[in-house]
């Protein structure tokens, strides 16, 4: 596969502090790569370096195989949308989207065709004659994306393009954005701190923290096998189930204990036998967990807890149970018929369990 | 405990009309949620019920007594806001203050403080200064103080928003339990559909100052009265596709999808030529092999445009000759079917999961008298 972008060993210091530490990754042509990380992880700085708006201290950027470190931003063939949306407020939406193409001295009919094509995918055709200062937040966001994508570029860089939008609009815009990417076949790098943006949109997710790339995977792999416990927690927004186990060997026999009085199935015991650390934390998603009055054959971890309630989410129920101040969550498609405080079995299935070292947070299995 | 009647209430702030002719009846002991996006007028409505705002038009009744002109302080309501405001003293004093102002003796105050603290689950921190307790506990103290007032009505404005997800779940369960024990009327304002669907006995869904629908959580989710309610509830919301009502069939983009005589005959009798069909993304079954007409089911042929992985589920966007809709799938079904963008698919939807809407006024059309 041809590489549209290569980021090679980028180091950047700001006021003496290293904000990017040897960052390296590649993006294939037509792919959407999401840089995911908490605020302050260096995502925006990295995008600016790719765009040529900031200079790295060392390392190189290659666009379509060409090293662009000494090429000014306007000659790099990149287009960038910032979190702060700067539209020309005295111009119409049409003029805003057309502006980069007018600057590129494109023929009028080509500009017209392109503006209409992008406006149609982003569903802003009805706004084309409206002035930019008369737009709502969601509309401004769409126009800013449209303008960035109207520009002829090899790579499109987007910094938190869906921030400050309410959940419903964000949802809709994400889909339209992904469609746009598929239909136009563009290469995109999108920076976000929202895991759902990363999971829903990307071909590849690069998880970045404090200027270091921690993990790079397709979204499904990242979601199911994060290499660190904190990434897993970050991705799942606290709906992760966690159980701490202690492993001890006594006279050749392995003893597994837990303050949660867990009943461990034979298969999971065998899994743990092979693990070389003493303090283990097991995690699982709510869709691999059951909370029922009684679970007979639980291949995994079974805990007797009390039922706390559920969230009715329309198409499903997120069920909650508690034991010794630990909260457990399970996804269910029928309404749970259990009363508040009633004892329940919590079965965290072996399928989908991840094993982490409690002390270092690294994935063991 | 009190019943509340809101009768044709409107409210304007300058040129902005925040509420338009809102009428609601909230029953004695009911947990009633007012749900809507920001700016829909829900907080204004709550403030009018509390007496903190005067309606421009319309009346408010508590137990059939007109309280529209009764000042807030004698309406006997307790409000709990998103941001708690506590007195800078101990938890105990915060709860005791409203009791002391009622003229209770010190021993009565003590007895009641302990009782309420137990109910809310903060008896272990009674002597702690509020500056040293967690956010969740602060919100519990705010609630305890509201209970101490022994009001006839509780008004809660997004009280759980600032809590972390775990505390929110526990507080939700506690709130429901407390309401059951106190048997009090609660009006709860929120923009969070999960909160409303989970907690409320009934929900009023609002948009642009108008009540779009009032119903139980199941009614508003399964049988939305308007396109807005269908779209607003659910993640993702309900799909709406334009369909033509033809003599023997309902067509989407020129292709037949529904052949049930009862449906198109009724629609035609009512004079509809174009309608919107609404269905929830989770009610669509996707297949990669052709599905022909099935009794009791609608079949839509289409192409997968976008696949989005949302962690606990997938959303598949299907396009059928310009019409688009979303399909929600659990990860297991998605993986076993293995769908790719650009692939042709056949989508079936049980007819009892399809609703019909008037494309002019966006309201649901009642087919054959059935009404959820």
TrEMBL record, chain A:
<dbReference type="InterPro" id="IPR047641">
    <property type="entry name" value="ABC_transpr_MalK/UgpC-like"/>
</dbReference>
<keyword id="KW-0813">Transport</keyword>
<keyword id="KW-0547">Nucleotide-binding</keyword>
<protein>
    <submittedName>
        <fullName>ABC transporter ATP-binding protein</fullName>
    </submittedName>
</protein>
<dbReference type="InterPro" id="IPR003439">
    <property type="entry name" value="ABC_transporter-like_ATP-bd"/>
</dbReference>
<dbReference type="GO" id="GO:0055052">
    <property type="term" value="C:ATP-binding cassette (ABC) transporter complex, substrate-binding subunit-containing"/>
</dbReference>
<dbReference type="InterPro" id="IPR015853">
    <property type="entry name" value="ABC_transpr_FbpC"/>
</dbReference>
<dbReference type="InterPro" id="IPR003593">
    <property type="entry name" value="AAA+_ATPase"/>
</dbReference>
<feature type="domain" description="ABC transporter">
    <location>
        <begin position="5"/>
        <end position="235"/>
    </location>
</feature>
<keyword id="KW-1003">Cell membrane</keyword>
<dbReference type="GO" id="GO:0015408">
    <property type="term" value="F:ABC-type ferric iron transporter activity"/>
</dbReference>
<dbReference type="InterPro" id="IPR012340">
    <property type="entry name" value="NA-bd_OB-fold"/>
</dbReference>
<keyword id="KW-0067">ATP-binding</keyword>
<dbReference type="GO" id="GO:0005524">
    <property type="term" value="F:ATP binding"/>
</dbReference>
<dbReference type="Pfam" id="PF00005">
    <property type="entry name" value="ABC_tran"/>
</dbReference>
<dbReference type="InterPro" id="IPR017871">
    <property type="entry name" value="ABC_transporter-like_CS"/>
</dbReference>
<dbReference type="GO" id="GO:0016887">
    <property type="term" value="F:ATP hydrolysis activity"/>
</dbReference>
<keyword id="KW-0472">Membrane</keyword>
<dbReference type="InterPro" id="IPR027417">
    <property type="entry name" value="P-loop_NTPase"/>
</dbReference>
From TrEMBL, chain B:
<keyword id="KW-1278">Translocase</keyword>
<dbReference type="InterPro" id="IPR013611">
    <property type="entry name" value="Transp-assoc_OB_typ2"/>
</dbReference>
<keyword id="KW-0067">ATP-binding</keyword>
<dbReference type="InterPro" id="IPR008995">
    <property type="entry name" value="Mo/tungstate-bd_C_term_dom"/>
</dbReference>
<keyword id="KW-0813">Transport</keyword>
<dbReference type="GO" id="GO:0022857">
    <property type="term" value="F:transmembrane transporter activity"/>
</dbReference>
<dbReference type="GO" id="GO:0005524">
    <property type="term" value="F:ATP binding"/>
</dbReference>
<dbReference type="Pfam" id="PF00005">
    <property type="entry name" value="ABC_tran"/>
</dbReference>
<feature type="domain" description="ABC transporter">
    <location>
        <begin position="4"/>
        <end position="233"/>
    </location>
</feature>
<keyword id="KW-0472">Membrane</keyword>
<dbReference type="GO" id="GO:0055052">
    <property type="term" value="C:ATP-binding cassette (ABC) transporter complex, substrate-binding subunit-containing"/>
</dbReference>
<dbReference type="InterPro" id="IPR027417">
    <property type="entry name" value="P-loop_NTPase"/>
</dbReference>
<keyword id="KW-1003">Cell membrane</keyword>
<protein>
    <submittedName>
        <fullName>ABC transporter ATP-binding protein</fullName>
    </submittedName>
</protein>
<dbReference type="Pfam" id="PF08402">
    <property type="entry name" value="TOBE_2"/>
</dbReference>
<dbReference type="InterPro" id="IPR003593">
    <property type="entry name" value="AAA+_ATPase"/>
</dbReference>
<dbReference type="InterPro" id="IPR003439">
    <property type="entry name" value="ABC_transporter-like_ATP-bd"/>
</dbReference>
<keyword id="KW-0547">Nucleotide-binding</keyword>
<dbReference type="InterPro" id="IPR047641">
    <property type="entry name" value="ABC_transpr_MalK/UgpC-like"/>
</dbReference>
<dbReference type="GO" id="GO:0016887">
    <property type="term" value="F:ATP hydrolysis activity"/>
</dbReference>
<dbReference type="InterPro" id="IPR012340">
    <property type="entry name" value="NA-bd_OB-fold"/>
</dbReference>
